[in-house]
Amino acid sequence: MKVLAILYDGGEHAEQESRLLGTTENKLGIEEWLTSQGHEFVGEQYSQYNFSRSDVLVTVSSSKEGPDSHFQQHILDAEVLITTPFHPGYLTKDLIEKAKNLKLCITAGVGSDHIDLNAAVDHKIQVLEVSGSNVVSVAEHVVMSILLLVRNFVPAHEMIERGEWHVSAIARNAYDLEGKVVGTIGAGRIGYRVLQRLVPFDCKKLLYYDYAPLPAAAAESVGAVRVEDLKDLVSQCDIVTVNCPLHEGTRGLVNDELLKHFKKGAWLVNTARGAICDKDAVARALASGQLSGYSGDVWNVQPAPKDHIWRTMKNPLGGGNGMVPHYSGTTLDAQARYAAGTKSILENYLTGKPQEPHNIIVGLGKYESKAYGQR
Ligand code: NAI
User: Fold this and answer.
1) How many CB atoms lie within 10 A of CB 63?
2) Going by CA atoms, what residue is nearest to atom 2 of ligand 1?
3) 272: CA distance to ligand 1 center in Å?
4) Residue 269 forms beta bridges with which residues?
5) Which segments does the entry list as coiled coil (predicted)?
6) 110: Cβ below 6 Å to ligand 1?
């Protein structure tokens, strides 16, 4: 049985920091785990590692783009694919059709949109995530991103590094979070944790838009109000945060048309998936001042090309950009949790034990999760 893991290269960082588990070097801890179970290391080629005991062969690589990549070559006979949203192996319908042995895809983290989930349903390939493994990590990043935009932090820090000091140039676009209206698109594990963390900031209103209403007690405990229409939600918000999965119903959801309904000068934070927001529409809205700021860690293509407009886009005052590489859900704390969860899913599969129901996105021939769109 072949297990293929597509992870990112950590280089010297992974050699110096063994807790960088999501890297090709540290392999989610799978090497130690297999060795401790009596598996034997049988060889190494390029950035690919092989371990085997009787019928288990594990291949780990970061090479994922194009027909000659290790991903596209090894997927042809792999039974299990492990990949991470931080360096996604894009498993298209076309590749699924060629992957004749594939039975299980494990997302080391949360968010399985890099897999064509409808094709996985059709081909009876199960898709599991390590649900909840990094939701606090992301929620903290969202709150940080809201604050850094509202308080105009990035231009202030850059000014200091340049040796300058113009308080007014920063303060003219700096505000308090207190008294603002904040809305989340998606109020699942992350969206709800964002709302919880915003409570002490005394915002004017906390709103959410989600086809799955929060349990009444949960909504009440954070004072969140559900808004049934998305345009209505964004038109009320000073700050919008995106916390839903990427699927057919959310791809390009935040586009030119929706951005027109935002309050002039609103701030937008997206740590969910880059493709939920239209790249060029966001850059235009920021340049025109329709948005005062955009922040997040997710991009429509990862790694983002060097000339991606989100790297350098700015508001008319030269600020408003809080973009970073995709790392909010891959803190060292999160890596420990999703590495353990990945091994547990793999172990269940190898030993025939049932999987934790909350980890199953696609079961045998059907969606088990209700989070990937209303069906
Ligand atoms: P979850 O499954 O707990 O919650 C998702 C919520 O979004 C559900 O309540 C669902 O009903 C709602 N939703 C789905 N479609 C919607 C739509 N069209 N409009 C409004 N709401 C909609 O998922 P969780 O754990 O909160 O994660 C959400 C997403 O965050 C993941 O799917 C992933 O894309 C992203 N994520 C990003 C990370 C990062 O490092 N930047 C790490 C972890 C997750």
Assistant:
1) 19
2) 371
3) 6
4) 241, 295
5) none
6) yes
Helices 189-198, 135-150: crossing angle, 10 deg rounding: 50
Report residue 116 as tokens: 């064509």
Rounded Cα distance, 92 and 100, in Å: 14
Residue 146 counted as an annotated binding residue:
no
- Give me 204's structure tokens: 């004017």
Is 193 close to ligand 1, i.e. is its CB under 6 Å away? no
Residue closest via CA to ligand 1's atom 44 equals 110
- Structure tokens, 143: 């709150």
**Pocket-testing residue among 8, 83, 110, ligand 1, by greatest number of atoms within 8 A of Cβ:** 110
Nearest to 278 by CA among 245, 255, 312: 255
Nearest-angstrom CA–CA distance, 172 and 82: 48
How do residues 114-133 score in pLDDT, each as one tens digit? 999 999 999 999 999 999 99
- CA neighbours closer than 13 Å in the CB half-sphere of residue 271: 26
Q: What is the pLDDT of residues 246-277, one digit of tens each?
A: 999 999 999 999 999 999 999 999 999 999 99
Cα 356 from Cα 106, distance rounded (Å) = 13
Which of ligand 1's atoms lies nearest the C-alpha of 329? 40
Q: Is 31 exposed, middle or buried (0-12, 13-18, 19+ CB in 10 A)?
A: middle
Dihedral, CA atoms, 97, 373, 296, 341, nearest 10 degrees? -70
What is the model's pTM?
0.96
Pairing of strands 321-323, 291-296: parallel
Q: Which two tokens stand for residue 127?
A: 């898709």
- Residue 83, pLDDT > 50, answer yes
Helix (H) / strand (E) element for 137: namely: helix 135-150
For atom 37 of ligand 1, the residue with the nearest CA is: 272
**Residues 6+ positions from 357 with CB-CB distance below 8 Å:** 368
Q: Please, are residues 206 and 223 in contact by the beta-carbon 8 Å criterion?
A: yes
State the DSSP code for 359: G
Rounded alpha-carbon distances, angstroms, from residue 363 to 105, 312, 367:
11, 41, 6
Please give the positions annotated as active site: 134, 273, 302, 326
Q: Compute, in angstroms, the gap from residue 52 CA to the centroid of ligand 1.
A: 36
CA separation for the pair 347, 332 (Å, rounded): 22
